[in-house]
Amino acid sequence: MFMEEITKAIGHIYRSLESISNQEFKTMGLANNLYAYLVRIDENPGIIADDLARELRTDKTTVSRGIKKLVERGLVYTVYEENDKKRKHLYVTEQGQASYRVVNAEHIYSERQLLAGLSEEEIGTLKKLLAVVDKNSDEEWKKVKQGYIRPYR
User: Fold this and answer.
1) How far apart are CA 132 and CA 108, in angstroms?
2) What is the rounded CA–CA span in Å between residue 94 and residue 91?
3) pLDDT of residue 153
């Protein structure tokens, strides 16, 4: 498989899952990828916006808008640090935890559907390979965010 076929397949998988999730979570007020914010906050109680942006590989402005929507919808609340009022820690409310359980159930279901037909050994290999690809992707993302111009031209 040529490299562009691999990145094309990864893109197809991502867009399919994103589209499904946005459609299914729309009635919960979690469309436009807000479900991903909720998941990361629930999995990392007290996370700050900068770390959430890095975790989601997006910019701080987008994360700030997402957090604001989650707070307005009663799914997330913030706690400011005593010594630094600019740093706010994010936590999921009870209502947010109920939404998280639905999102998590969908993610488990989707993972089962995507891995159908693979053996346990193949799934283990896939996990290892994806961990390497994810690490490489993260390193490239960090460099580009810092202004690095990649030499592919």
Assistant:
1) 22
2) 10
3) 81
